Amino acid sequence: MNFENLGLTNLSEFLNEQSWFIELKNTELNFLFFFKTASISIASLSVAYLAKIWLSYRFFKERGLKSPEHEFFYGNFRHIHQNKNYSEVLRDWTKQYGKTYGYFEGHLPVIVTSDLDIIQEVFIKQSTNFSARKKGFLSRKDDDPNSDLFQSTKGRWKRMRMIMNPTFSSAKLRELGPILVNCADRLIDVLNKDGNEAEINVSEYFKRFTMDSIWNCAFGVDINMQYDLLNGYYERSESIFRDTAYPRIPEYLGVYFHEFKEIILHTMFFINNIACKFIDEKNWHAYFWLKKKITDLVKHRGNDSKINRRDYIQLLIDAKIDNEKNINYGDIKKFITGQEMEANLLLFMLAGYETTSTALSYSTHILATHPDEQIRLHDEIISAFGNDLSLINSDSVQELEYLDWFVKEVLRFYPIANSVIARRCTKKTTIKGIDIPVDTPIAVDVLSIHFDADLWGPHDPNEFYPPRHQIKRNPLAFMAFGNGPRNCIGMKFALIELKIALVKLIMNFEIVLSASKNKQLEYEEGVVRFPKNGITVLLRKRKNF
Prior knowledge:
Helix content is 51%, strand content 9%. By secondary structure, the chain is an alpha+beta fold. The strands form four sheets. The protein has a five-stranded mixed β-sheet. A three-stranded antiparallel β-sheet has the order 4-12-9. It has a two-stranded antiparallel ribbon with strand order 6-7. Helix 8 packs antiparallel against helix 9 (202-218), helix 9 (202-218) packs antiparallel against helix 15 and helix 15 crosses helix 17. The mean pLDDT is 89.
């Protein structure tokens, strides 16, 4: 274009007279300024964060504690999860660094101990200073409305525990006894379908049995778990627990950037909640699918006044507060919010499902590899009940002394939920000269304690020997259910469920080691430590049944 024809001799003069061009220049300058400022800010924050990480690695040196060599940024996390066996890694480190030492999850310092004096301080004497569980890879904030009993702290935990304790009283467990017996009878019926003699991976059957027991006892609902092989509850519960042994990108981010794990979790929930609006329900993530089922169940029970069951869900419904505005979660009053109720129902379902079924799997392995134990248990059971199955109930199984020793020895020999019994400091304190800041996790090396000859002798603790439990021991030497005020609330329920199932199993079958399987177990560990590929045994039907 010939600008002279326009009467202008300078293009610049023309453009500078245009308002749109002036605005464009200002926008460009503003954008460049913003970009430079943002770049400098991000670079400064990155340097500051890296400096924080570097400083955090001085934690154990400042306290005179030994620790294994770590990688910058990763800490010891990659080593711990290399073979999916957290408990054995801790035991190996204890042999190298002593009873109390530390390691890093990313740059989060974790103190590990098998010193019973320190454990007594953390779990009992100073339990109010450690009134929180160690946070998982991804965790909610302490004041999150959806926190459950496991995640809650201080007064909020005390309030929830006070409401839930009656569910696990002796009187209540006696009421649940016939339901547990019925679920155990279903287990035997399903196992009988394979004939008089069959090689079976019993782990899946036990998982279905424990889930069946939980839904019938706690929720008053029969979901046909043991007979329906394609049951959605089983598949999704299994998915959740298997995921804990195989962290994904969000979990890794939660470990390496632990200050932001709550934000990462909320972002995941936000994305999933939106996705659930556009995806068919059967394709939802397992957690959201199960939560939806719990929500539907609560609504059904709340709307149907004809249902009059005194089960776990009804206990929570009765304690639900009507007005949830301006709630002080730390109040020590007998109330629970709707969100807390649903969170705790989901917790009870998942917590009771995997732990008890894994204990049954380990028990079956011991019965197969120690036939003398099986004979002694069978003799005790027959002496108590004969062939009269009607005598089996929640009270009578607790009177079987050798069975009690056997179950305790299984849980000593194969501790299950080792990672989740760890505590988190909620008030700065000092124990045996070690300064412990707020939010510092204290993990317990359970295997070192359970196999300590000084605690479990004189018989070799590396041998399976139930009679060792007739001797009174330091209660802190047995960590199968944790210890102190925050021990497992469902311990009594789990033990009764476990004993009823074992009595039924031993009365009906001779359990024989499979010729195709090795006596030595391989383990994987996430939230629980479980036998890799389950437990396969030969079940031989007893002639008198």
